[in-house]
Amino acid sequence: MKRRVKYVIKLEQVEGLREREREQLREVVEKFAFRTNTYYNSLINWDDPEDPIRRLVIPSLEELEVWGKLDASNEKKYTVAHGTEHKYRDTALLLVTDVCGAYCRFCFRKRLFMDDNDEVARRLDEGLKYIKEHKEINNVLLTGGDPLVLSTEKLRKILRELSEFEHVRIVRIGSKMLAFNPFRVLDDKELLKLFEWFNSLEGKQLYLMNHFNHPRELTKEAREAIRLVRETGTVMTNQSPIIRGINDSEEVLQELLEELAFEGVPPYYLFQCRPTMGNKTYATKIEETLDLIERVRSKVSGLSARVRYVMSHETGKIEIVGRTEKYIFFRYHRAAREEDMGKFMVYERNPEAYWFDDYKNLVDEFKSYVGIN
Asked: What's the rounded mean pLDDT across residues 341-365?
């Protein structure tokens, strides 16, 4: 079954697209990389031009609208070694590949898939040396790209080296592969044995940070892959941005959060879509999204309702806490600077805001508390 999943990198290979559509989209794929696969394409209803699975991987002319930056959260600022970021004291991030099972059109790291990208480390020696020397790091996140695109042998080498660092207690793998191509798990017993081996080590724990964005991605095959990974002792969670036309309705979001919890993959974060170049058509307004999430939270169990609504801002992970008729409330869930840790902020509302930087009017009585004169 694994051999039947073929990767698609040219619009001509997408059987569901008409020739006229391919011609219209050429300019988009010349600017932003395109990749999907036959398994994921089989989930698309090609008779529906607004199909959410289609919208997730098939380019849109709206991506050409001028908006945002390629590195919207200024990740480069926190690069400490080639392919290595260290933003929060206890967590390091390794960019281990610049390939995914498919490319989400709303990706916040689409810069990695461009020809002139040099952020991903082909050799991780420099980053691993940095982690080894910084004893405060107890969490390492493998990301990219999608680490499960790597061969199991390459993953084994990375995990073996990290396992030798006594201070590294948790390794997280950020992956959408169980949604894009669950056969990566279903057809590779060695991968499951590798996960089981790491979890058997004293004081170590492997986490798989999944990216299911829509409940239709939770196919029979995906659910079986989830079950097999869970049996290795790997802790499963899910994180997803709120994406216009994909999961920005009450019904869809409620189903997604509930089905994930039913499968033992509790929701972890709901992200505000970053203002990345090409992403305007996928972004939602913060205050509308906050209201949506709160309505859904009121309908689901505590396991699903504990999901946090956050922005991965340059200065830290900012949680959108709530609002009144006049004000909106933010808190640093994680902060790059020590003085920002746990900081609570109150701004005048801006219904047109897409990002934290769109809020300008900090409420006076909070200015001294947050360090603004």
From this structure: 93
